[in-house]
Amino acid sequence: MTNIISLGGSIAAPDKVDECYLAKFVALIKELLNENADQRFIIVAGGGGPARAWQAAYHNISATLDNPINNEEADWIGIMATRLNAQLVKALFGDYCKDEVVTDPSAKCAEGQLFSGRILLAAGWKPGFSSDNDAVLLAIRFGAKTVVNLSNIEKVYTADPKLDPHAKPIDSINWKDFRGITGDEWTPGRNVPFDPIASRAAEEAGINVICAAGRDLENLRRILCGGAYTGTLIHA
What is the pairing mode between strands 2-7 and 156-157? Predict the structure, then answer.
């Protein structure tokens, strides 16, 4: 069984690397692997604080130079941050992760060539979407039916709770209604529960996404073990 986790950069590196969290996260995944010999994990790293900081620098400096903002360039900056985070997490897993970080989930090679260990790390691929989309593409490729999306929110809300005091948490929602909340447009650094481009791909492929608070590792254990959890299920 292959589990797909989209590890939000807001969890792994909110402004700098959260060493304590990553140590506990890696320990949990190793523990689950040792408990079940059939388990495998694909972990897709987000960019987090480094991506936002470097993208902000690009915007700010460009403004002083009267340079127009190029969204593709901004996306590439964010992508490089995801690759740095992914390389770190790969190193933390040691021998559990034998393959190089995947930066192109569409690469045409045999599964065994892409995934020879029990953990595979992946990062951003190319401009036009976030690393969430890479998680969906890898789920399709490896036959996983669910992507676990870990971020700094416990559930999806009907609106941004920071802006709308009437926003309510959602336990379960279909893709059509979810996309009605988030829209279909992607811009570099956009902060949404799940990337709109990835959402469309997941809907078309019939893949479910569980959005949950990444820092609650006991909750993550329940999700991965099929127990009752706190979060939002986005489904077909």
Answer: unpaired
Backbone phi, psi, residue 214, to 5°: -65, -25
Q: Which residues have a Cβ under 8 Å from the Cβ of 116 and sit 6 or more positions away?
A: 98, 99
Sequence-distant (6+) residues with CB within 8 A of 51 are 9, 77, 78, 81, 82, 189
Closest CA to 152 of 21, 43, 51: 21
**Pairing mode, strands 208-213 and 232-235:** antiparallel
**Which of 47, 119, 132 has the alpha carbon at shortest distance from 90?**
119
Tokens standing for 134? 């890479």
Question: Token digits for 131?
Answer: 């690393």
pLDDT tens, 136-173? 999 999 999 999 999 999 999 998 888 888 999 999 99
Q: Which two tokens stand for residue 43?
A: 């972990």
CATH class for the region spanning 2-235: alpha beta
CA 59 – CA 77 distance, rounded (Å): 11
Contacts 24+ apart (CB under 8 A), 67-72: 71/127, 71/187, 71/188, 72/127
Backbone φ, ψ for residue 93 (5° rounding): -85, -10
Segment 16-30, tens digit of pLDDT:
999 999 999 999 999
Using CB atoms within 10 Å of the CB of residue 88, give its burial: 0 to 12 exposed, 13 to 18 middle, 19+ buried. Answer: middle
Say what the pTM is: 0.93
For 35, the 3-state DSSP assignment is: helix
Q: CB of 159 within 8 A of CB of 167?
A: yes
- Best CA proximity match to 13, nearest among 31, 29, 25: 25
- Reading the block at residue 236, the tokens are 């077909």
